[in-house]
Amino acid sequence: MTTKARVLVLDDDEIVLRSLVEFLKTEGHEARGARTVNEARSAIDGAPLDLILADVYLSDGTAFQLLEDVTESHPKLDVVLITGYGTIDDAIHAIKSGASDYITKPLVDSEIRLVIEKTMRRHHLKEETEDLRATAQGEFGLDHIVCEDPEMDKVVRMARTMANTQTTVLITGESGTGKTMLARAMHFASARADGPFVEVSCGALTESLLESELFGHEAGAFTGATQRKKGKFEAADGGTIFLDEVATASSSLQVKLLRLIQDSCLERVGGTETIRVDVRVILATNVDLAREVSEGRFREDLYYRINVVPIGIPPLRERPDDIPVLARRLIRKHAAEAERTAQDIAPAALDAMLRYDWPGNVRELENAVERAVLMCGDETVDVSDLPAELSQPAALPMPPETEGVRPLKEALRGPEREIIRRALEYARGNRDEAAKLLGINRSTLFYKMRKLRVAERAAAV
Fold first, then answer.
1. In a domain, 189, yes or no
2. Who is most buried in 194, 247, 325, 375, counting CB within 10 A?
3. If we measure between CA atoms, which residue out of 166, 162, 164, 168 comes closest to residue 258?
4. pLDDT at residue 91 greater than cutoff 80
5. pTM of the predicted model, to two decimals?
């Protein structure tokens, strides 16, 4: 059943106007009439409308004049033009002028019903799209990223600055730090948010498959290519493409990537047609690309082209201030999904999280929290709910011939603890001053103090 529509009928023929308004009311819609362009303008400004059914030729002008006003001031309002002299040229002119449809007299009830049904369906789709966009911005937007740590806050501010530009961005960071999340957040913070966000993991495919996946292929381009296929760049037209693990791309593929980023055009595999695309490119890597360039594994020209705005995400072990807020947010998220009672984390469990190195970064933290939520039978996650490696870090096994030799990380704890203690004493307990002396930020200093158990009395400030 068609949703009730709010319709304005514009016609200078009193009989047609009255009969059409009455018909719409009997169909259950809100309808009122206007006989001139000026009356219609007043009606549009007076109350919300979904649709205008307008005769083209009126006593004080044409409906095309009204279309210009509607397009500028009421872009969500649909206008359907009605005329008794329908030609192909008139229809083309109507659509180009901004009309959503075009019908001819004599008016048929079924045709009017169809026009209203199409209009309301279009409105509902727009509303659903806007709702989905709002949900996506809430779930994936930059405001969703936890950044209590000063260094992570710099990352988010840089991402926010660059989000609504066309500049190619290179995101660096260890695996699991949230490079995909940041790229998606930049997309939803940009003017391209209504367009697609397409993600490609370059390291997950062979060279030939990756080229076909990115650029598409023509029928017969290779064995098994029975029909034309558009690539990810074409699929991302009007939106953003995110290329993860870009360092794994072959040299020949790097050449094609360079051309696409510079010229915004491509050819499908096995094709000769040049295709232009409007795509914002964001790339990511977990390796040192500068070193890859110096060792001949990554093209220098591509490196300088994509390294215009590098954004480096610090590993979780260097942003301890983020661990408590991340842990609590993830606890509530997974508790809601699994219908569990956990809502918070015990101090001892949080302390274990702060002491742990998190080699898998935020991804590992989320996995640990999900497990803890499932294991927890209370409202508070405790140490016993955490994975064993967090609650009881295992020592690295050493072979007999290395007796007396300890793992380097363990061996360095003593000297590192002493250096931090001396810096705090020199700074009279002022953590900011001590952090400056050590060349680290305050959050990293606090994390190391907790991890190395540096006495709090050494840091009175």
1. yes
2. 247
3. 168
4. no
5. 0.63
